[in-house]
Design a protein that fits this description.
Blueprint (H helix, E strand, L loop, with lengths): L13 E2 L8 E11 L5 E11 L7 E3 L8 E4 L2 E2 L5 E4 L2 E4 L5 E10 L9 E5 L2 E5 L19 E10 L5 E4 L2 E7 L4 E12 L6 E4 L2 E8 L5 E8 L8 H18 L7 E7 L6 E2 L4 E5 L12 H16 L7 E3 L5 H19 L2 H20 L11 E2 L8 H18 L1 H15 L2 E3 L1 H12 L8 H4 L5 E9 L2 E9 L14 E9 L10 E5 L3 E7 L5 E5 L8 E4 L3 H10 L3 H20 L7 H11 L6 H7 L5 H5 L7 H18 L1 H10 L9 H19 L5 H11 L3 H13 L5 H12 L3 H12 L6 H8 L10 H13 L1 H4 L5 H14 L3 H5 L13 H15 L6 H11 L1
Parallel strand pairs: 2-12, 18-19, 19-21, 22-24, 25-31
Antiparallel strand pairs: 1-23, 2-3, 3-9, 4-8, 5-6, 5-9, 7-8, 10-11, 11-16, 12-15, 13-16, 14-15, 17-18, 20-21, 25-26, 26-29, 27-28, 27-30
């Protein structure tokens, strides 16, 4: 046969029901790298074994590779004995076991997709999830092929003095001509998406951890020398995570070393490669001057998430990519639980639900809606979504609520015991929970199968000493799923007495599993007020017949912190939606409720800061049939202004009371700084003449980034004469720090000012803006799409800017470009003129020649 590279195939649809076990397995692989940024040689030696009774050839996935040699069992094959089909290496092999060897050359410096082996800031590093390993060497690139890896690396010692890979180090040495080598071996079989390699000039923050069985594990966080002082927080988080996983799940780390490397150019937050986690530097580097409290928290959460993957993702991995939530949903739940245990569980739950509502609920309501376990895809990278991650975590949480802590732990233990060393499915996890928790989850499985956010209507009535709660559920139609079956919705419920202000009986867990259900409460002598979905026990939209007075009551008296917060938010939301619809806006109940919360000394300041914030403009829009960005903005700003004026004394008192003499990273100090920024924002909203001076004094005098960022945000949103000075000052101070400069771009992209579109377009031409770095793209273009009013400017310039960015970025990094498409896909929610402009930009994207399948899938589905 001839060595002919066939033309790329049109985008094909991969379907879950078409899954077939791999034709060939690869129990062992030995990789030999001669590393260079422009020309890296990769030799691979694969021990291949036929899987089952069939005569299909060996097919090794490849992307952009051309073999320089192909050997089978020590013999070099002729060109007629192998072929390339759509980039894949195909070899007809007799028998059941062979040794296959290939050699390819790749150019990391030219790899702008940042998938496979690429260059970043002088480093060579890898990203292989989901299908990046095929850009390094020929291999069956699928998660159910589990392989033991041996890796040898050779490189110029001056340029790449550190050579890291998965597993444990085996040997190292020097060569002639200033070169050196290192060998690593991972004793645990793993899918190729977990392969990792890093070479570069790095230094390590070194520490150790002693496991519960007494084993010492050497820890290293590898960074550029200048960044070393910013790694202590990440190291602390790592050690806390290791101890927490032992206590909460009984999971002990299994290698002798655990390394983390921070890189500047990365498509994701981090990657859980076995023993060698590779991180976006924004989730490793922190000090008080450059990182906000939110950054510190995110670092701890992401470090925990990637470490927890060692068991929920690595030791037990996914059978196929449709099972992605098996590892990601479970691990998000685990990292959320860890973070809740480190500080305020109530505030953590509020933050997680806010993210879910901002990212996942709109996804569920749009053209890209898909089940937690998808049925099909064109490009798997498009399914690293809030549905798979965040809603997937909520499914685990619902099971934990229904089972209780003890039975949930039994189910988790059973899952790990059954599937250690295997490629498992979501069904395997649910079955383990059933068996370990002794519960029937047959109907619950619909959460994995049906897309869409269920809606629950709760109507409470009271007659004599009996309260009657009517619960009705529905699941809206989504693309490809018109008719939905009832879900199992676990609702934590409690009644409170309107007069007594106390609870009327204990909390009840109601499993709503039919379209309609009635729950009765006896012995209720006074008018009850309903507290429902406490702790956000189910990811649903709840509608009730509660009055504004009921919501205000709950915001003051509910004993569940999340429900208390939720009541305040619902009161604000109802007021704002009515105002947008043209009703007379009665702000008095909101003002009274905010005053009550703000002045309650028993409340945690972090909780107060969250509770008194108005719902975002996007969240308000999600509750309207047709989104009117300008009307929403006017209504929200009017309420903010009135809250600022009416409570100016209280805001100033809160602001003064939260000023610290020095930076401290603790739950209490974080809460104080959060409330201080919120109070400053409301003082500015009041129109106070000294607001600009107050903000600028905080901006200049802050000893930490949280306070400085809070003041900078207030100035960037306003019209103070000091605004331009703050923008210039922030830039000059941090222009050499890429991560902080991202904040400078983001703050301006999120500005509520009338000229934000102009500013964003100007910033896209700034000397420090680049499409080559995903963080910088997300900082400007990604943040801009969250700014509902600016992005949806009536003239459509925001849409055109985003489409321009997507088209240009697609040529460099399709994965990052595709992540920018969904905001345009929400055109159905907006008025006719805006919808037409959004559709036109989507069509322009789809019509672009040589468009990647990543972007094509997102844009074409958004248009459908």
């Amino acid at each position: 046969m001839l060595d002919v590279q066939t033309a790329p195939a049109a985008p094909t649809v991969v379907r879950r029901l078409d899954y077939r076990p791999p034709d060939w397995l690869v129990p062992e692989i030995a990789l030999d790298f001669v590393l260079d940024s422009l020309k890296t040689r990769v030799r691979a030696r694969l021990d291949v074994r036929r899987n089952g009774q069939h005569n299909r050839p060996l097919t090794l996935d490849g992307d952009g590779l051309t073999p320089e040699s192909v050997m089978v069992d020590g013999r070099v094959l002729e060109a007629s004995e192998w072929r390339l089909e759509n980039g894949d290496l195909v070899i007809e092999l007799p028998g059941d076991a062979h040794l296959v060897e290939t050699e390819v050359r790749i150019a990391p410096e030219m790899n702008t997709q940042l998938m496979g082996l690429y260059a970043s800031g002088g480093l060579l590093c890898t990203q292989c999830e989901a299908e990046g390993f095929r850009r390094i060497t020929f291999f069956p690139d699928r998660p159910d092929v589990l392989t033991r890896y041996s890796v040898r690396m050779e490189a110029d010692k001056a340029r790449y003095p550190v050579l890291l890979a998965n597993g444990d180090p085996v040997a190292a040495g020097d060569l002639a001509d200033g070169r050196h080598w290192a060998e690593w071996k991972d004793p645990f079989p793993k899918p190729c998406y977990l392969f990792a390699l890093v070479a570069g000039d790095l230094v390590a923050n070194r520490d150790s951890f002693t496991t519960m069985s007494g084993r010492k594990v050497d820890l290293g966080i590898w960074v550029r020398k200048a960044d070393l002082p910013k790694t202590d927080h990440a190291m602390t988080a790592l050690k806390l995570s290791m101890a927490w996983d032992e206590k909460a799940y009984g999971r002990e780390y299994d290698l002798d070393v655990f390394n983390i490397v921070a890189v500047a150019d990365f498509n994701f937050g981090a990657m859980e490669n076995k023993g060698l986690n590779i991180f976006n530097s924004r989730y490793i580097l922190a000090d008080p001057d450059t990182a906000t409290d939110a950054d510190y928290d995110a670092i701890a959460g992401v470090v925990a998430h990637e470490y927890f993957h060692n068991w929920s993702g690595n030791r037990v991995t996914c059978r196929d990519w449709f099972q992605l939530s098996l590892k990601e949903g479970f691990t998000v739940f685990r990292d959320q639980s860890f973070t809740a245990d480190q500080g305020s569980a109530a505030v953590k739950r509020i933050e997680d639900v806010r993210v879910l509502r901002a990212a996942q609920f709109p996804e569920d309501a749009g053209p890209l809606a898909h089940p937690v376990r998808p049925d099909s895809y064109m490009e798997i990278s498009n399914f690293y979504t809030a549905t798979v991650y965040n809603k997937g975590a909520e499914l685990i949480r619902m099971m934990a609520v229904m089972l209780g802590a003890e039975r949930f732990r039994k189910g988790a233990d059973l899952y790990f015991e059954r599937h250690d060393g295997e490629a498992a499915t979501c069904e395997d996890f649910v079955t383990a929970m059933e068996d370990g928790g002794e519960i029937d989850l047959a109907q619950f499985r619909r959460w994995y199968e049906q897309a869409g956010t269920p809606r629950v209507r709760a109507t409470l009535s009271h007659n004599g000493t009996t309260a009657r709660l009517l619960l009705e559920q529905s699941v809206p139609p989504t693309p490809g799923q018109i008719d939905k079956l009832p879900m199992v919705v676990p609702l934590r419920i409690r009644l409170f007495g309107e007069k007594s202000t106390g609870p009327l009986g204990g909390e009840r867990l109601i499993l709503l599993d039919t379209a309609e259900q009635v729950v009765t409460f006896e012995g209720i002598a006074e008018r009850p007020v309903l507290s429902i979905n406490r702790g956000f026990s189910a990811p649903v939209i709840v509608e009730t017949n509660r009055t504004p007075a009921d919501l205000a009551f709950l915001s003051a008296h509910d004993d569940d912190p999340f429900a208390r917060y939720e009541a305040m938010q619902q009161l604000m939301l109802d007021t704002l939606v009515a105002a947008v619809a043209g009703s007379a806006a009665d702000h008095a109940p909101v003002i009274a409720a905010v005053r009550n919360t703000l002045t309650d000394p028993s409340l945690d300041k972090a909780f107060v800061a969250e509770a008194v914030l108005l719902p975002s403009e996007s969240f308000i829009g999600d509750h309207m049939l047709v989104v009117d960005p300008e009307a929403i903005h006017r209504a929200r700003e009017a309420l903010r202004s009135e809250l600022g004026v009416a409570l100016e004394k209280e805001w100033r008192a809160a602001y003064a009371a939260t000023q610290a003499n020095r930076f401290e990273y603790s739950p209490e100090a974080k809460g104080a700084r959060r409330l201080r920024s919120v109070a400053l924002g409301y003082i500015a909203a009041s129109g106070a003449g000294d607001a600009g001076d107050l903000a600028f004094a905080q901006f200049e005098g802050a000893d930490n980034m949280t306070d400085r960022q809070g003041a900078f945000t207030t100035l960037a949103n306003g019209d103070s004469t000091l605004r331009a000075k703050a923008i210039e000052g922030f830039y000059m101070r941090y222009r050499d720090n890429a991560l902080v400069l991202d904040k400078w771009f983001t703050t301006q992209a999120l500005s509520t000012r009338d000229d934000t579109v102009d500013q964003v377009i100007a910033l896209s031409k700034h000397a420090d803006f680049t499409l080559a770095n995903p963080n910088r793209v997300r900082a400007l273009a990604g943040a801009f799409t969250v700014n509902q009013r600016a992005f949806h400017a009536a003239d459509g310039r925001g849409y055109a800017y985003l489409a321009d960015t997507i088209i240009a970025l697609d040529k460099l990094n399709p994965q990052t470009a595709a992540k920018l498409v969904p905001p345009l896909g929400r055109w159905r929610r907006f008025g006719e003129e805006r919808a037409a402009r959004m559709r036109a930009q989507l069509q322009r994207i789809v019509d672009t020649p040589e468009l990647s399948r990543d972007v094509f899938e997102q844009a074409s589905k958004s248009l459908a």
